[in-house]
Write a structure and sequence with these properties.
This protein has six helices and three strands. 53% of the residues lie in helices and 7% in strands. The protein starts with a helix and ends with a helix. The radius of gyration is 16 Å and the shape is globular. Helix 2 packs across helix 4. By secondary structure, the chain is mainly α. It has a three-stranded mixed beta sheet with strand order 1-3-2.
Length: 154
Amino acid sequence: MTKEDFKRWYYDPIRELCKSNHNGFIILIATFPILERYLRDKFNIKDNDDITNEAVKYLFNMFELKQKKKARDFWSQFRNGLFHNAVFKEQGVINWNVSDIVIDDGKFHVNPKDFANKVLDEIDENYNFIDASHLYNDATQSVSEPNITESIKR
């Protein structure tokens, strides 16, 4: 994926979603896959393997969580909850009044806009870590968005 692809496919659309406080779930559902791809490529984690402790430590530092265990708990609550059930597990709350992630009363309060902006900025500054070439037959092949007009004409 080129930096231009990243901007067109993720950065710009997610930033557009961030303009409304009614898009919290969608913002997080769109942001977590690109965060996971980033972490997997940055730490050489195979697609079928769990996120490593090194990647969890990186999340811990990125979001300034107070305990490393909380970074893994956050990943489990939000990433796994959203991807497997389309909701958070019992300890997740969307809260537009906090800064990215706050732990209060044993629950993770996440501001989707701040979370997404932090993730997008991190990837934008370090986009060279994202390598999707293993997803294509030919590593030099480029991926483009489908041309809907051409598909309709057929």
